[in-house]
Write a structure and sequence with these properties.
Layout: E1 6-9, E2 16-17, H1 19-32, H2 40-43, H3 50-59, H4 68-81, E3 88-89, H5 93-102, E4 107-110, H6 115-121, E5 134-135, H7 148-156, E6 164-168, H8 171-179, E7 183-187, E8 205-207
Parallel strand pairs: 1-4, 1-6, 4-5, 6-7, 7-8
Antiparallel strand pairs: 2-3
Length: about 220
């Protein structure tokens, strides 16, 4: 098996469980409009879709009655002020990142979360201090599933794309990595409603445990 020299990760649903803070932001906006809030088990599978996906979920057919941009700004403002109240690392992530650091394997983050929010969130976790690059959804003109963000991240890490692993929990993550000729890994612990669909994403590997990723490096 090929030994890879760098690892890139999605953020929400891959490294961090951010669903409850994102859901709180959604419910804040819904309550401000006098609408019913959304239960955790309903919004969690949609958390990777960010403000747009969550607002579409919460408002449903009534979304057209409101100014979407105003809703989005209210959502993001609330989320920014409450960005790491409930957010935590997934089990195994701390050990995985520590192992990569010990092996001198560079790693970074490529997310569709707006860069300014990612730059606020990531420093909240000391386990991320060795992160070599952080690419947000608006860092470049293109965002995942376009390959440009992951290619840019690999370049910043001075790692050839074919020597990189990209780990994510959504089809757009795997498409982005595949289009960049990276080794793609599905983080099945993330926000995946129907885990049986993962086999259709054309990833190289499906993992249940973050530490399994080390098998392609050590």
């Amino acid at each position: 098996m090929k030994k890879h020299k760098g690892v890139l990760f999605d953020l929400d649903g891959t490294l961090l469980d951010t669903a409850n803070d994102l859901g709180e932001a959604l419910n804040y906006v819904l309550k401000s409009k006098g609408l019913k809030t959304v239960d955790r088990e309903i919004y969690r599978p949609v958390a990777s879709d960010g403000s747009k996906g969550l607002l579409e979920l919460g408002f449903g057919d009534r979304l057209c009655e409101f100014d979407f941009e105003q809703l989005r700004v209210a959502f993001l403002d609330y989320y920014q002020e409450n960005i790491a109240i409930h957010t935590c690392l997934y089990p195994g992530i701390e050990d995985l990142l520590s192992s990569l650091d010990d092996l001198n394997i560079p790693w970074g983050i490529v997310t569709n979360k707006p860069e300014y929010l990612a730059q606020i969130l990531v420093p909240q976790f000391s386990q991320f201090k060795q992160c070599k690059t952080l690419i947000g959804g608006d860092t470049l003109p293109e965002r995942k599933p376009h390959p440009a963000p992951v290619l840019f991240a690999a370049e910043k890490m001075k790692c050839a794309p074919t020597d990189c692993i990209y780990v994510g929990d959504a089809p757009r993550d795997i498409e982005s990595g595949n289009r960049a000729n990276m080794h793609t890994v599905i983080a099945q612990w993330g926000y995946i409603l129907n885990k049986d669909e993962c086999k259709n994403w054309q990833a190289d590997v499906i993992t249940l445990n973050p530490l399994d990723i080390l098998a392609t490096i050590k």
